[in-house]
Design brief:
With about 400 residues, this protein is an alpha/beta fold. The protein has three domains: about 200 residues, Rossmann fold; about 80 residues; about 90 residues, Winged helix-like DNA-binding domain superfamily/Winged helix DNA-binding domain (Arc Repressor Mutant, subunit A). The protein is about 50% helix and about 10% strand. The chain has 16 helices and seven strands. The strands form two sheets. A five-stranded parallel beta sheet has the order 2-3-4-1-5, sandwiched between helices. Strands 6-7 form a two-stranded antiparallel ribbon. Helix 7 links the parallel strand 3 and strand 4. Helix 13 packs across helix 14. The chain is flat and about 60 Å long. The two termini are about 30 Å apart. Bound molecules: adenosine-5'-diphosphate (ADP) and magnesium ion. Adenosine-5'-diphosphate binds next to helix 2 and helix 11.
């Protein structure tokens, strides 16, 4: 079971409309989409958004900041623009023949040196994008997949500022946007750092949930899988949808579970086995959260709990309020900021907590909040966030942004 691919062309169309400022939602300043890992963001960008953009005559620059975690985000971005320019390079000669010399001298500042990463010193990201737009004579769509990764370093943040200023420069001169931006992230809280703080590049924009695959996907997938099974050995569409919800909307997980259930070949029992398989998967994931959480010191647990409950309103680790909340949770009389710092550092080492370059904290994996609020949520602290708030909503139909 590997070649099934579900497409959402209407969703891609409505997203592209909103990037142009035509749709119900106006995303001319950029579209920020968040959803957990493995739910199909990259697949949707590559297989639905890029083809839709191409059919509109746009040029797309796609970069995945996670593809190569060691590479610096600003260099990945510059190189993605460079290779797109290279694809349009042939146009330079045509322009030269048309004696558009002014344009050529702009382009003359950019030497395409592929033996070296990044852009020449005298060329900004905005210059490079402007050159690409001029060469291609088309609007440019820049897609940054896993954009939150740029926030871990100051060079990465600067690259985001450069993108924003490119957007402002290029769009200032035209009615329809000539530079459009889509950013995705596997962690809503991290992605939100790009937009919620005045000091951040996209302050004022907002993060929308990436529309998860829903019932149309599971129905199509069930039909596709049933095609290869005997008539008395069929998956029920309802059971497939239920299982999909249990695995958090992750197509690969669903595929794996259905594959092993189908192999076991207990004809009449497929649906029950499917439900059981999906439940076991969730139990395993939650069991891992439980083990990790229980291995922490009381102070580390208290910090995580406060972070989880405050993640909507903003968590500040050393505020009077947070310090009081830790103390209440560990039932301690005194607590120093130094020991909170030590605990935070070890939460980072354990990959439970992430620290943005400018000092804000967020969960590494949103699933931990979902597990905590569902299984441990009812404690002394006031509930400021319902479990539903963090559970990705998988709807009967895939909702438009
Ligand atoms: N529309 C789809 N149809 C079929 N399989 C999909 C679809 N979207 C995602 N998948 C599968 O799910 C897995 C994870 O998808 P991916 O796009 O990498 O997720 P993300 O970028 O959100 O982490 C991939 O292996 C892919 O094959
Ligand atoms: Mg991805």
């Amino acid at each position: 079971m590997s070649q099934f691919s579900f497409h959402r062309p209407e969703l891609a169309r409505s997203i592209c409309d909103s990037l142009q400022g035509k749709g119900i939602t106006d995303a001319r300043s950029g579209l920020f989409l968040a959803a957990p890992r493995r739910v199909g963001k990259t697949t949707f960008l590559r297989e639905d958004i890029i083809p839709e953009a191409t059919s509109r005559g746009w040029v797309t620059v796609y970069v995945d900041l996670w593809e190569n975690k060691k590479a610096a985000p600003e260099l990945l971005l510059a190189d993605a623009i460079k290779s797109e320019i290279a694809r349009h390079e042939g146009v330079i000669t045509r322009l030269a023949r048309a004696s558009r010399l002014d344009k050529i001298s702009v382009m003359g500042t950019l030497s395409l040196d592929f033996s070296r990463p990044g852009l020449p010193e005298n060329v900004t990201l905005a210059n490079a994008l402007e050159i690409l737009r001029t060469l291609a004579r088309a609007p440019v769509l820049v897609i940054v997949d896993e954009a939150q990764h740029a926030l871990s370093s100051s060079d990465g943040i600067n690259a985001m500022f450069a993108l924003k200023s490119a957007r402002d420069q290029i769009n200032a001169s035209s009615e329809a946007p000539d530079l459009m931006l889509v950013m995705t992230g596997s962690n809503r809280d991290k992605l939100a750092h790009l937009v919620i703080n005045k000091a951040q590049p996209f302050y004022g924009s907002s993060v929308s949930p990436f529309p998860l695959l829903g019932r149309p996907f599971t129905d199509a997938f069930a039909a596709w899988a049933n095609n290869g099974l005997s008539p008395d050995n069929q998956f029920q569409p309802d059971a497939v949808f239920e299982a999909f919800k249990l695995v958090g909307g992750r197509p690969q997980m669903l595929r794996d579970i259905m594959g092993s259930v189908a192999l076991s070949g207990e004809a009449s029992n497929l649906s029950a086995l499917l439900r059981q398989g999906a439940q076991e998967w969730q139990d395993r994931v939650w069991g891992e959260f439980e083990n990790e959480f229980d291995a922490l010191s009381p102070l580390q647990q208290a910090i995580l709990e406060v972070l989880i409950r405050k993640k909507k309103t903003g968590f500040s680790p050393f505020s009077e309020e947070s310090m009081a909340a830790y103390k209440a949770l560990i039932k301690g009389e005194t607590l120093s900021p130094a020991s909170v710092q030590t605990a935070l550092d070890s939460l980072r080492e354990r990959n439970l907590v992430w620290r943005e370059a400018r000092g804000a904290y967020a969960l590494e994996d949103d699933g931990l909040a979902e597990w905590f609020l569902t299984t441990r949520g009812k404690t002394a602290m006031d509930d400021e966030q319902s479990p539903q708030a963090t559970t990705p909503a998988i709807s009967e139909t895939s909702n438009l942004p």
